[in-house]
Design goal:
It is a single chain. This protein has 267 residues and is α/β, with parallel strands linked by helices. The protein has nine helices and seven strands, in the order αααβαβαββαβαβααβ. It has a single domain, classed as 3-Layer(aba) Sandwich (Rossmann fold), CATH 3.40.50.
Length: 267
């Protein structure tokens, strides 16, 4: 399944005004389980630190940049993404929003050349798209100041990308790997220079059900025909409350296994 064209179509709908863009961010914040887990980690971080500079590594629609700009209003945020169109769109939104502490740039994380600039680096659902992951981990470690945090959300090898058996292809065709082994990503981060690495599973049983209802089936429908955009509001009207409950329990529970990983690494 090609995910990028569907994302682009959704973006075109919600980019028509600042109000719609904020509404889009709010919907993503509540609907996407990974956003719940990242929100939890950012809140824990905010109780201890007040970062001066933050890097959003692979910023996409900019929803996490927006959340961090609200949680850390005094911090300067650099958001980097490969897609020029996305970068221009996000810069336009934040300018209209009146936020001059956020800047979006086009960039390749394998070529990231920053040295001890940031206290916090966020990387959400990006590493499964990058072949040269060890190089990116090293670049992000170098970009952090000593004691800085790296937060990562990525699929695991326990069914991430909806791959259940060897030989199956990823549900999202843009993924270059189906998911990370918890021990493997920890080892790669330590080799990159991080002194402390904590890896936890997300998307346990509640999360897997929520993902199917909130993401997998709607994406499959939209992949069949754009006419399903008409059905989509009714679908979410029916399943959205149920997904919220499932997301809450997934974040509160400690999972022995799951299709996602939330990783915290400290330089």
């Amino acid at each position: 399944m090609q995910y990028d064209p569907i994302k682009k179509s959704l973006g075109n709908v919600f980019n028509r005004s600042v109000f719609l863009r904020k509404l889009f961010y709010r919907l993503l914040d509540w609907l996407l389980l990974r956003a719940w887990h990242i929100r939890k980690q950012l809140r824990l971080y905010s109780k201890i630190y007040s970062p001066v500079k933050i890097l959003d590594a692979g910023s996409g629609f900019g929803q996490y940049t927006y959340r961090m700009s609200r949680l850390f209003p005094n911090a300067e945020i650099l958001a980097v993404d490969l897609k020029q169109e996305q970068v221009d769109d996000c810069n336009r939104f934040f300018k209209e929003h009146g936020n001059n502490k956020v800047r979006f740039e086009t960039g390749d994380l394998t070529q990231l050349n920053k040295t001890e600039e940031f206290e916090l680096v966020l990387c959400v659902d990006v590493m499964e798209h990058i072949e040269e992951d060890e190089k990116v981990f090293s670049n992000m470690c170098r970009a952090l100041k000593p004691g800085g945090w790296l937060l990562i959300s990525t699929p695991s090898d326990r069914g991430g990308s909806d791959v259940k058996e060897e030989g199956e292809s990823s549900f999202i065709e843009e993924h270059v790997r189906d998911g990370y082994n918890a021990g493997d990503i920890e080892n790669k981060l330590r080799i990159a220079g991080f002194s402390h690495v904590e890896v936890n599973y997300s998307y346990g049983t509640p999360g897997k059900i929520s993902w199917q209802l909130s993401m997998k089936y709607p994406i499959l429908m939209l992949g069949k025909s754009k006419l399903f955009f008409i059905v989509l509001p009714f679908w979410y009207l029916l399943f959205f409350p149920f997904c919220l409950v499932l997301n809450y329990f997934d974040v509160q529970m400690k999972h022995n296994s799951g299709t996602g990983l939330v990783v915290k690494a400290v330089k």
